[in-house]
Every structure is written in structure tokens, then in C-alpha cells.
Amino acid sequence: MSLGDIGFLIQYAVLPWLLLFFAVIAIQILRGDINTRGLLRTRSGNRDIDPERVAILGTTLFAAGAYLVSALHQGAVYVEATHSYQMPDIPDALLVVLTGSNGVYLGGKIMRKTQGDTRS
Amino acid sequence: MSNGSQPNRNPTGLRGDAILFTFAFVFAIVAISAAAFHYQVKPKDIAVLGFIAFSIIILAFAAAVLWQLATGTIKLGGLISEPLQPGESGPYGKASLSRFQFLIFTFVIAGLFLMLCIETGGFVEIPPNVLGLLGISGGGFIVSKAVGLPKQDNQSNAGGQGAGGQGAGGQGGDQGGGQS
What we know:
Chain B: Keywords: Membrane, Transmembrane, Transmembrane helix. By secondary structure, chain A is mostly helical. In chain A, 68% of the residues lie in helices and 5% in strands. Chain B has helices at residues 16-38, 43-71, 97-120, 128-148, 162-175. In chain B, helix 3 (97-120) runs antiparallel to helix 4.
């Protein structure tokens, strides 16, 4: 048995471990063991759902799903210049959308915090 | 050394089981070395054996962590929760979208990285835009964490206790609990 054979076996042990790790967290979120209370609501004020939170949640799931599907279709990309493989790139437009969505979310959060401080 | 609660200590200050373990360890090393010398084991074989032992230990660590996560010994309840604010009740604070986003992107990129590494048989490079994605998410997480920290009562923390209070808040933010 060579080092390469062991590495071959190890990679097939690490992949199930990672998948099981993700599965444990996903199951705990679905069962409610991991707290998701108030994910779409602000801490103070009314109990309505906040639009910017829905927007960032939708953007996040869309970006993650789109990149996952795209990467699985493309596979590793060979780079001629460095003679190496790299992960597929993310379109700049997707990064801009994510940055804007995060900015709106954080801006709203900071604004609410500032207003709360002013009121108190 | 004359402490009555530690009867196993000898005059040198070492416990008996520690001395026994040290002797057993040294004996095992000498025995393995003698066997390797006797059977003329090649350095490459030693490397393979060491790699197997190292891999088993690392995989045992991974399995132990996974088992404790699955059985609830390691609690994940506050994984995406903010620290408790004053006046809030319950074991965890409100769930945080930025933490959830960071979790999702980390999962996607880590999973893809591993799968592509298996596909190519070596490390794959991570393009700048993917690092930018993690940076945006991580930056949002840090800003959100800073904004979500409970306000410190400066007057009650006067007298040099402010730094300790800040540390406690940060720890609560990591674990999502422990504050009542």
C-alpha cells in the first residue's frame, strides 16, 4: 500500500464526514433544535416580517444555489497560465447583488439600532 | 508534596501512573525501533505506517466530533443566534440572518472545494470572486455581530471592569447562550 492509496481512501472518508456534518446541522435546523426564532423579524417593534430580511435571505439562497449548480456543471476549470485547476468563478453581477443586499440589511440594522439609542 | 489529598505522588513530584506511562512509551519506541532495525524496514514503509496511524487519529477526532454533534453533547442550539439582549428571556437570542448567510456560503464553498479536489486529485485554486463572496458574508457577519452586541452599562462597569464585560459579551455572541 502506498501513500497515494491511503490518500485515495482518506478522501472517500472525508467526503461522507462533511456531508454528514452538513446533514446534522440541516436536520437540527429543521427539527428546531437550532434556534431560528425571529430570523425574518427585527428585535424590537412590531412582529411583521421585514422586507430587507426576506430580500437578503432570498438573495443568499439564490446565490448559493446558482453557484452550486454552475460549479457542478462546469467542474474544476483548468488555468493555462498557472497549469493548475481552480474553482469556477462567480459572476461579478452576483457579487454586486449580494453586496447591495447585505448593505441594505446592515444599513437597516444600524439605523434601527441608532434610532433605538436615540429614543432611549 | 506533603498534601494528603494527593497520595499517589512520590518524593520526585511525579505521579506513579505518569512514570509508568513514560516507561511504557519509551519501551514501545525502543521495541518498534528494534523491530524496524531487525526487519530492515525502509523509510518509505515507516512513512506509510505513520501516515496510516496519523489518518486513523484524525478520522477518530472527526468521528468523535460528529457523534457528539449528532447526540447533542456539543450543543448547536445557538449556532445562528445573536447574544441575548437585556430584558430578553430564553436560552438563545434572536436568530441572525448574517450568521445564517455565512453558514450557507461556508457550506457551499467548502463542499465544492472538497469535491473538486477529489475530482482533480489535488488542491484547486480559489478565484478572487469566491474569496470576495466569503469576504462580503464574513464582513456582514462581523458588522452584524458588533451591532447586535448588548449595550454595556458604562456606569456599572466603571472601575476597570469594562474590558471584562466586553469579553463576556463577545463570548455570549459566539455561543448564543450563557447569558440570562
